Amino acid sequence: MTFYFSINEMSRYDCEFTDSERLTRLIFTVEELTDLVHELVRQRTQPTKTWMEPCEFAALLRISTSTLRTWRRDGRFHPNAYRKGPRGYQFHAELALRDAQELSS
Q1: In whole angstroms, what is the distance from residue 74 CA to residue 34 CA?
Q2: CA separation for the pair 47, 50 (Å, rounded)
Q3: pLDDT in tens, 39-80
Q4: pTM for the whole thing?
Q5: What 3-state class would DSSP assign to 77?
Q6: Contact between 78 and 95 (Cβ < 8 Å)
Q7: Confidence of residue 27 (pLDDT cuts 50, 70, 90)
Q8: Residue 6 or 58, more confident
Q9: What are phi and psi of 89, to 5 degrees?
Q10: DSSP 87
């Protein structure tokens, strides 16, 4: 997105325009900035991930995947905090983290 007038150009040539023209230019610039902000937010916003792979969850807890597997087998996580996925187990981001926090307290 290209802005037609920079701040310096606007102030330098400001005397050449009527109040109505300055207002129109200002509104146009604000609309361009608003569009740019909306586009940046759209590009940066990612949906919250509900289910995590064991390697992701283990990295979050700073433990090995072997320890995570042992904890799951030992029943340290509630059954609804993990599920069997197509490539192994997945951990629910909120529920499994809550169970892991209870282990450390």
Answers
A1: 53
A2: 9
A3: 777 766 555 778 999 999 999 898 999 999 999 999 999 999
A4: 0.54
A5: coil
A6: yes
A7: very high
A8: 58
A9: -85, 150
A10: T
Region label for 7, one of left (φ > 0), alpha (ψ between -120 and 50) or beta (otherwise):
alpha
Contact 59, 98 (CB under 8 A): no
Rounded CA separation 71/62 (Å): 14
Dihedral sign for Cα 74, 77, 82, 88, please.
negative
Instruction: Give me 30's structure tokens.
Output: 């604000």
For the chain, first and last CA: distance in Å?
Answer: 51
DSSP SS3 for 40: helix
Distance CA 15, CA 27 (A): 18
All residues at 6 or more sequence positions from 51 whose CB lies less than 8 Å from its CB, including other chains: 83, 85, 90, 91, 92, 93
User: How far is residue 95's CA from residue 90's CA, in Å, rounded to a whole number?
Assistant: 12
